[in-house]
Amino acid sequence: MHDHAGRAVARIRQIGEFALTTPVPVVGRRKEAVVRVRLVPGTGVFKLNGRTMDDYFPNKVHQQLIREPLVTLEKDGQYDITASLVGGGITGQAGALRLAISRALIGLEPDDRPALKKAGFLTRDARIKERKKYGLKKARKAPQYSKR
């Protein structure tokens, strides 16, 4: 379910007098990496392809990058995050996960949007690998010039 701007919104089902919120899977992309995230209120446990955060991202820089949206909103430890990460490398997946978490937080609480937008967490990094051109070894690297 999406609002008019195309953002994911938590679905609410009425069962008797209880309202249950179903987490909507949110997608984040960077380079070749695609990440699908589910945010559920909890204790701050990360499940990334069935592994823990320390196991999947041993680099502390990547862990800090991923937690930034939660730390900015002072919600670190309030949500359990389950993510499916596909494609790309470690840095691309970390960036995609950060974007997906930011989008999911907005889906749960739209009032958080200005703070995340100001911090730059909602901007999709559009930089991708440039294609190789014929006559060149890579996208821009030319073969060595020989005078004779």
Helix content: 25-40%
For the biggest sheet, the summary is: 4 strands, mixed
Taking all residues together, what is the mean pLDDT? 87
- Per the principal axes of the C-alpha atoms, what is the gross shape? elongated
Order of helices and strands: EEEEEHHEHH
Radius of gyration, in angstroms, nearest whole number: 19 Å
Structural class call reads alpha+beta
Strand arrangement within the widest β-sheet reads 3-4-6-5
Total count of helical runs of at least 4 residues:
4
Could you explain how this protein is built, in words?
The protein is elongated and about 70 Å long. It contains 4 helices and 6 strands. Residues 12-20 have low confidence and may be disordered. It is 29% helix and 24% strand. By secondary structure, it is an alpha+beta fold.
Task: Provide key terms for this protein.
single chain, 148 residues, alpha+beta, 4-stranded mixed β-sheet, 6 strands
Strands, helices and their partners?
Layout: E1 11-15, E2 18-22, E3 26-30, E4 33-41, E5 46-48, H1 53-56, H2 60-72, E6 79-86, H3 90-108, H4 113-119
Parallel strand pairs: 5-6
Antiparallel strand pairs: 1-2, 3-4, 4-6
Helix pairs in contact: 2-3
Q: Would you summarize the structure shown here?
A:
The protein is α+β, with helices and mostly antiparallel strands.
